[in-house]
Fold this sequence. Notes:
Blueprint: H1 3-16, H2 20-34, H3 38-44, E1 45-52, E2 59-60, H4 62-65, H5 69-73, E3 74-75, E4 78-79, E5 81-89, E6 95-103, E7 114-123, E8 129-138, H6 167-195, E9 196-202, E10 210-211, H7 212-219, E11 228-233, E12 239-240, E13 246-258, E14 261-273, E15 279-288
Parallel strand pairs: 1-8, 9-15
Antiparallel strand pairs: 1-2, 3-4, 5-6, 6-7, 7-8, 9-10, 11-13, 12-13, 13-14, 14-15
Amino acid sequence: MTRAFMLVVLLPIALAGQDTTAIKASLLRADRTAASSEASLRQAMAPGAAVLIPGENVLRGEAAWSARLAALVMSAAGRTAWMPLHAVVSRDGSFGCTTGVLHLASADSTRPATGRYAACWQREGDGRWRMLALSRASAPASLKSLPDSLPGAPGSTGVAAPRDARPAFEMTEADRLFGRFSADSGGPAGAFSRWVADDGMMLGARAAPARGPEQVRQAFAAFPATGHFAWAPLEALTKASADGSLGFTIGEARIAATPAQVTYSKYLTIWRRERDDRYRWVFDIGSDRPTPGDKPAPPSD
């Protein structure tokens, strides 16, 4: 048996046997380092990364977010950093996403003092992690702190896609169908509960994330039956792991609780391939964006 043949045979076995505990630990270390200073965050960011900040449109690429990095780790009122609480990683160890709490330390009691974030990363050949997406959501100003743990968080149990699959395309289509279902028939309660994984969590501006189909459904209980909640992914921003077991979509939403009450938002949704070969979301986090045509509002964090 030639060495090349053995490599072809054994490589998939090696990838399937990745030590996810060690990979998660390395990813969480990279996340903590990125939060420590502007220089560290700049070094961690991939040039084409997308950044989602409350009150702004999606910032695509280094030219759009470069000047904002200092504000993400330090503000005039105090330290504006974050603490990772949990990580999920792909089966092949090439890709992972982190989530945790923001420590905004605002001196103004009318502004948010905390919130949540999610970030997605790609592991390079030398083992270093580069951030592909960062999304932040501020908590209500009345909520001054969040727990430093995330009980029941989703696991890294994704299934690798077949060799001929197109994971990024499939995730984009899953997100597109997800949004159409909300707009055309099921509403947000039906759509979010239908596409969430059993252990999936909806992050955002809440003290405790909604987890699983029933809690997610209840999170939209107050949304009017006559309201209209629609969204669509920005296809060019979808990223997936090499094996297709994990990835994310980024998109924009229009929320009309009533015809006179219309708001706009953006989101990062993290998808995991399940045993039935369908993609279901494990984390979803969104924040407001300007009304199309308007100037962006000042960031809320």
